[in-house]
Design goal:
single chain, about 675 residues, alpha+beta, six-stranded antiparallel β-sheet, 31 helices, about 45% helix
């Protein structure tokens, strides 16, 4: 797990500055503190750099990247993990391919030279982002894993393409200007992002399951984008019928394999542990595989309504894990809010992102670099409350109407805490989404429902720029209609979440960015693509059976789950919002005063100071309904996040900051 960066010029004669490459690595030192490397051969017009976190092959001399192999034919940098790499390496050795290290990364250029890019991608299993330059074809590939666990950003300057693992890496290049554009700013205020976009003008993401192929032609760059994998649910007529036991055994088999692969490391591996089925299943399986007690890490909140420590402790005791609990209060959460935005490079609606950053810090404090996590289970097995709502509304054909209403009402009651966030406060309908999907998924409604607040919160010039902009239309345009046609409503709801909230939220400010902030690698077994390809075959009525979500997973993992958890309904994992605690509200107000005062807001020209102040007043009022407070809490967090993005990336001279970082680390050419 590392950080990658690079520059690809439109002409081979354009020299790539060595110190710029090193500066780009230095600004993401947190991703790879163990060593760095760079490569920019003369008269090639390409350069790459790398910051390394050593997990596989701890020999720094062997594992250093970029790899520039086999007489200079292939240059590559890789972030993430290729699982099953020992088998791949052994096969490649038998084919006559030499290896200089024991790093999993080195299988990439060897696979490419044997099979080409398209076939290579079918052989890679894991979480990864990489860049590979082929000198013979004079082309650069940028590739991101199937779900987007690992980030990869890119932009174009006047004469080059610049890429990196984080936005700040790209902004460290002196020819890239930091600017928040109107549409990106708007989406920062409503949480949900348009796939492939960022808050910054001209800076894009390689989308999950996609690759970019960049070639040179008469002093210009040609960029081709190709999708190599998708979460493909069978059409209604294609789905094969099997027994319940077939699906239960299949999930168990694939998840056991996914966990086993992700326990492979040259350093100790621990587990994140909440009180949910997902992380408890992972810990249970990992404990079965391990010959020694595993380390388990749990976040505890100082509000019993949001805390799951009791069930987590029961699970840890069941498998005799070495259990570490980190209790977080207002001081810890809000004192680290600003630092979290530096790493997430996007706004956050809830301080869960801060909590996870603090947790990864604790993991590193006790000398662990790797943990297994439970992310992805809700996406594969329909765990979120919004999925059940869409199932009850759109996918229960033939069910007694009274029964469907009873289940829906029960869902709303049991998730009252999260109305305005995990469930919509009011129904929101997007005609553009309806045209593509058939309905507006409940998972998007809470955020699209903030659109009017967001428009009023924007500065007048940005409000004018987006007066005809419809966020639902922008999202709908990025969805592949062929993956939605003739699918069950539950399949559609899950697919849309995977394309928007999973990559844009769960795996960003809930995953890689807050984990790697502290040089810690998180591995989510549920996002193994072999498991996912089996999960899509499970009939909707077995993913949600009656009113019970994740039914097949529960049955598959029944033997490793405490009875309390096996019988428990899904509980959304989120930090207590500021309005639930006077101390948290005071801390949030102080942060708003520090970074989003009227003077700073007016100077930045991003937000409307009057409307921001009116939201703060409304949030403080005892007359404001709780569901409104949940929504306003998210909007205030977003507004604060916008001002912090401006503070860190627009006001600051990022190239100079990156240079200073390199100098302080001794990363100099």
């Amino acid at each position: 797990m590392c950080g990658i960066a690079g520059i690809f010029s439109a002409t081979k004669q354009h020299a790539i500055d060595s110190q710029t490459l090193v500066n780009m690595a230095a600004i993401m030192h947190h991703r790879g503190p163990d060593s760095y490397g760079y490569c920019n051969p003369a008269e090639m017009g390409v350069g790459m750099s790398h910051a390394r976190l050593s997990i596989i092959d701890l020999d720094q001399n062997r594992g250093r990247q970029p790899f520039w192999l086999h007489g200079g034919q292939t240059m590559c940098v890789h972030n993430g993990e290729f699982y099953d790499y020992q088998r791949l390496r052994t096969d490649l050795l038998a084919r006559g391919k030499p290896f200089t290290s024991k790093s999993d990364s080195e299988v990439l250029p060897a696979l490419y030279e044997c099979f080409g890019m398209e076939e290579t991608l079918t052989k890679l299993r894991g979480e990864f982002a990489f860049a590979l330059y082929d000198e013979h074809k004079d082309c650069l590939y940028l590739v991101r894993d199937r779900f987007g666990v690992k980030p990869l950003y890119w932009t174009e300057t006047n004469d080059s393409l610049v890429f990196g693992s984080e936005v700040k890496v790209i902004l460290a290049h002196p020819d890239v200007k930091a600017e928040l554009d109107s549409e990106g700013l708007f989406h920062q205020l409503i949480q949900v992002m348009v796939p492939g976009t960022t808050a910054f003008k001209g800076i894009h993401q390689v989308e999950p399951g996609h690759m970019l192929k960049i070639t040179r032609n008469d002093g210009k760059l040609n960029i081709e984008t190709k999708k190599y994998w998708d979460m493909t649910f069978p059409t209604v007529g294609e789905r094969e019928e099997h027994t319940e036991d077939f699906y239960v055994q299949g999930v168990r088999r694939e998840l056991v394999n996914a966990v086993q692969l992700r326990l492979n490391a040259d350093v100790p591996v621990g587990c994140y542990l909440s009180g949910g089925i997902d992380s408890c299943s992972i810990l249970g399986l990992a404990s079965g595989y391990s010959q020694y007690p595993l380390k388990a890490f749990t976040i505890s909140f100082d509000n019993v309504e949001y805390d799951e420590t009791e069930i987590a402790t029961e699970m840890a005791e069941t498998v005799q894990a070495d259990h570490e609990i980190l209790t977080l209060n207002a001081e810890l959460l809000y004192n680290n809010f600003a630092r979290t935005i530096w790493h997430t490079e996007r706004t956050i609606y809830n301080t869960l992102a801060v909590a996870k950053l603090m947790m990864s810090q604790q993991v590193r404090h006790v000398n662990y670099k790797v943990v297994l996590t439970g992310e992805g289970s809700d996406e594969l097995f329909a765990g979120y409350p919004a999925f059940r709502k869409d199932m009850f509304l759109h996918g229960m054909e033939g069910l007694n109407a009274d029964q469907a209403t009873e289940w829906k009402d029960s869902l709303e009651t049991s998730n009252e805490l999260f109305k305005g966030a995990m469930l919509p406060k009011d129904e929101y309908v997007s005609n553009d989404l309806n045209n593509v999907i058939g309905f507006t998924p409940s998972c998007l409604q809470p955020w699209l429902g903030c659109s009017e607040h967001a428009r009023q919160l924007l500065h007048a010039k940005h409000r004018e720029n987006i007066k005809d902009y419809e966020p639902g239309a922008a999202i709908a345009e990025k969805l592949d209609p062929s993956q939605l046609t003739d699918r069950h409503p539950l399949d559609k709801a899950q697919y849309v979440w995977i394309k928007t909230m999973l990559e844009g939220q769960i795996l960003t400010w809930g995953g890689d960015r807050v984990d790697m902030a502290n040089s810690m690698e998180a591995r989510p077994p549920f996002l193994d693509h072999k498991l996912a390809e089996f999960a899509v075959t499970i009939p909707p009525e077995m993913r949600i059976k009656g009113s019970k979500e994740k039914y097949v997973l529960r049955e598959a993992m029944k033997g490793v789950l405490p009875q309390t958890l096996y019988e428990r309904e899904k509980f959304a994992f989120m930090a207590p919002p500021a309005h639930t605690d006077a101390a948290k509200w005071e801390k949030l107000k102080r942060l708003l005063n520090e970074f989003a005062s009227r003077e700073k807001v007016e100077k930045a020209g991003l937000l409307d100071a009057d409307y921001l102040e009116s939201l703060i007043v409304k949030q403080a009022s005892s007359d404001t309904p709780i569901s409104d407070k949940v929504q306003i809490d998210a909007i205030l967090n977003h507004a604060l996040g916008v001002m912090l993005l401006h503070h860190y990336f627009v006001d600051r001279d990022v190239p100079k900051y990156a240079y200073d970082q390199a100098q302080s680390l001794g990363w100099v050419v």
